[in-house]
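Fig. S4 source data, part A: sequence.
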Amino acid sequence: MTPQAPPRRSLVHHPDFRLLWAGDAAGQLGAQLTGLVLPIYAVSELHATEWQMGALSAAETAAFLVIGLPAGAWVDRMRKRRTLVVADLARALVLGTVVAAALAGHGSMGLLLVAAAAISVASVFFDVAHQSYVPGLVGLDHVVEGNAKLQATQSVALVAAPALGGALLRVVSAPVIMIGTVGTYALSALLLGRIRAAETLPARADRRPLREEIAEGLRFVLHQPLLRRIVACTSIGNLFHTAAGALTVIYALRVLGMDEAGLGLVMSASAVGGLAGAFLAERVARLVGEARVIPVSAVAFGLAFLATPLALPLADVVPPEVTLVGGGAVFSFFVVVYNVAQVSFRQRLCPPALLGRMNASVRFLVWGSMPLGGLLGGWLGTTIGVVPTLWVAAVGGVASAVPVVLSPLVRLTRLPRPDDRPDDPDDRPESTVAR
């Protein structure tokens, strides 16, 4: 009789992961509060135009397009824990500068754009290092559990931050709320700094020219047929959803007539779907199939976003808050399910030494479209108006699912592993590229 393998121990019992998890929770809360309060501050106190809001949205992600590729090669040469700590401290310092200027009466859109771009640079290094750190910290057998727990944290922050921010906006100004956000970044840095796991850096003698290392990471991504399709879907979706996101605050406050606190509560209630998605992602993947769940969730969140522009014509029948919450909850549920599935796939597929460059290449391709989306939203909002821009973005979001719908993913239940050798070349991960 073959002895049964001992049950796998949860990452809750992993002390270093607990610190990473807690630090991530603090940082996510700060990031979500910032994402809520900065646009509201720009619209309500700095009287930003549609074009300025598009520029602000672009600045918040510009670094992924500008330095996204070399950042991966740099991260692979750095100690990832130290990179995370420095990035958190940098974000706290920059945001603290914005707070000081606002409280002194010297806030401006120019300063806000510069600060958003600087925070974007720090976020590039944080996000690339964060995704590359998880597999080495917890082991490949635990990456799905680790990613699900971190996605759950993000979803909790998506629920808690808008509700907290919306309530606070009733009694204090946006700059005062940002003081607390500075503290969350500092707390994140403190917790991450206590992680004790040792990291082994590649020997300096093994390093090659930066251009070669960058090209290797990009080549790994582009030579994976399934990963190529996932990246295309995510990039197109991010382009259109960011175009819409640049105008969401203007749409809610000026077109639908909501107040700041009401917008915060809508965002909080919508994010409950993401929280459910984080807890149910593994179960949904087992039910639908870990490969098939990617195109299914892409179609679902694309259709759910149609509720955003529909909130205006339905306003005489259904309060716009109800429409926005319903669509937003379904949207965030399937976005989280999609992210858990595709991030876990690429972490399993990629050799450890290449993780930083692989993640940076993916982020360059999928987040690099976001500043372009912000500018597109600002331009379209100025040219054709806010509501028509939201319709363009919603249709584009639905179309973003085409690369994964028209792929072998719809026929598969299990995503390929590096050692698989299927007959269908579109199913093969081609792991020899980076060996």
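Fig. S4 source data, part B ends here. The chain is about 75% helix and 0% strand.
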